Amino acid sequence: MFLKKALTPRLLLNDVSCMRNAQQILRHVNVSIHDGGALVLTGTNGSGKSTFLRMLAGFSKPSAGQVLWNGHDITESGVFQQYKLQLNWLSLKDAINERLTVLENVKWHELLEGKEGKSLPALQLMGLGRLAKEKSRMLSMGQRKRVQLARLLAIDRPIWLLDEPSVALDDDGVKLLEYIIAEHRKKGGIVIVATHLPINIEDAMNLKLPPRFPRKMTFVDMLDRSELM
Ligand SMILES: Nc1ncnc2c1ncn2[C@@H]1O[C@H](COP(=O)(O)OP(=O)(O)OP(=O)(O)O)[C@@H](O)[C@H]1O
């Protein structure tokens, strides 16, 4: 019994393909992730990193293959109801309500989760303790990203889907991001990150998505060839 449990990955992508707007974006992806695992998605603009995360979040269904959670297909409605409660999604849209205070912007999500008490410590860990009572409209881009990271901590769900989580963060912010990812994984959490920027995630699996179109000469190539360079 224990052996079977240990061998079943928490998440398994089994020969998954995914379409978007009638275009084939992902082709035959196979990945298995156990508790404590991390997957880093890289690839050129438009290669499908966000599509990959959206599919795992249930916004789009695989056009072929299966995404299995605990061995069950997440597209089955009974399974999806349970599966979606495992997810914590950080996207480029930060859903910050500028009329609320910084603390309220985290607390609101925590309350929806039926939890309380973690929002302020999460903001403090992210270096925003002194701004907790300020209106969110005065936050900088990096501070807004830190609020999103505080939400991850306050909501505290096991599977983190992070789309470009380090964009706008300063060096300390990136270190904090790396720290909370490492701590989350120590507790058995799973982290899946799409990124163009280097993020230090120990023993992460790396999946580089191929470019969607054959590569043509780019503006950068033209500059390289230019005699002016
Ligand atoms: N809202 C949309 N509707 C239809 N097609 C879309 C939409 N957004 C993106 N696509 C298509 O899906 C492809 C993959 O986009 P996706 O956002 O997943 O790429 P990405 O790897 O995350 O890119 P980036 O590095 O620029 O963030 C794009 O090439 C685009 O053609």
From TrEMBL:
Pfam families: ABC_tran
Key words, A-Z: ATP-binding, Cytochrome c-type biogenesis, Membrane, Nucleotide-binding, Translocase, Transport
GO biological process: cytochrome complex assembly
InterPro entries, per database record: AAA+_ATPase, ABC_transporter-like_ATP-bd, ABC_transptr_haem_export_CcmA, P-loop_NTPase
Domain of life assignment: Eukaryota
Key word Membrane present: yes
Gene Ontology molecular function terms on file: ATP binding; ATP hydrolysis activity; transmembrane transporter activity
Domain called ABC transporter: residue spans: 11-229
Keyword Mitochondrion set for record: no
Coiled-coil region: none
Signal sequence extent: none
Protein name, per record: AT1G63270-like protein
